[in-house]
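To close the chapter, one final illustration. This time we ask the reader to focus less on the individual chains and more on the assembly as a whole: which components sit near each other, and how the overall shape emerges from the parts.
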Amino acid sequence: MGHEGLLDVNDSTFESEILNADKPALVDFWAPWCGPCKAIAPVFEELQGLYGDKILFARCNVDQSPNTPTKYGIRAIPTLILFKDGKVFDQVVGAVPKSQIEEFAKKAL
Amino acid sequence: MSGDLFDVAIIGCGPAGLQAAIHACGKKAKVVVFGKPERSSLYKAHVANFCCFDEVIPGKALLESGRFQAEKLGARFILQDIVDTKTEDEQFTLVSENNETFLAKTLVLALGVSRKKLKVKGEKEFLGRGVSYCVDCDAGFYRDAHVVIVGNESAAVTGALTLLGFASRVYLVCKELSVSDALHKKLTDSDVTVVQGAWVKEILGDTGVDKIVLTNGEDLVASGIFIELGAKGAMELAANLGVAFDAETFSFIETNKKQETNIAGLYAAGDITGQPWQIAKAVGEGCIAGLEAAQWAKRLRV
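The assembled structure is written out below.
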């Protein structure tokens, strides 16, 4: 499974890379032991291929970076959060269908 | 029996799993089948559209004769749920609810589909804010918290035991437990508070889950509720192995015409690969999966 081009963010880089990003950012909060996270990963990468020029696609490992998920009240993974201008624009929880993830990403456009 | 190496391990003993066992045995493979027949959706069904049976037959009878047939051919049946799967060195390791370990060269997933949702007030509203369907994924978010887990079978009991490693208090709400004796003993020896003969009526909270209202009139104060109905399903057992699901719904495992998944030596058959949910389709896919798995195992034989 390749994650080429998918930006890995953590507690210390979250502000500079996501909150201060010059375009909307879609962050996948995940963990290596999470089956549903693995299941949606290919879709996330596929969407990056389609919308990567307009939206920043990133992922945050909640095991390595516990502070960021706590800050955003995350208690289930996978959770996708869309950030716009440094603020939470919307979020979706769970391995939801591809069409729903795409609709969700397109909200940023 | 732990430590034995099987050619073909099959999770699920409905029509797909049984047919896979029958065909794999026909190829002289050493076969083991896991699961509980009464959990198959066929168990309570009455079958009227299965080729060559022109009278309505109870599903239970079909399952019994299928098992008898597979056993006669040499398949071993372990009437337990599988609670963990791993791959290592081209082998699959399966852990049963009794905590026994089994090794196999190939794995056929024929575990069907089951209902995951409770369908109670608050369940949808608090998804991701206290409501979770995956202990393995989300237990870490409930360190030192009070949590409830609901379910009657192995997923709920193993989940409750896992949660003990994180939460300060774990309530298991169940109508009646249906797990192996060994798992049941592990539960009663643990610090899990078992609330039996009750079910969840409503999930209450403000910004997140605060309280779980039970059907017996009791309220449990908790910041999280894990819904773990039935046995661990494909998402729990297969996604960790890296199995690809259909991107449209993430409910079904993707297979090709040989019933192969994207993982070498791993096959899927029956309802878990998608609709139509019919015996005819399940046995057809089971047949192919059993033959292919047996052949793959033979190839690995040195």
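The two ends of chain A are 28 Å apart (CA to CA). The longest strand of chain A covers residues 87-93. With these observations in hand, you are ready for the problems at the end of the chapter.
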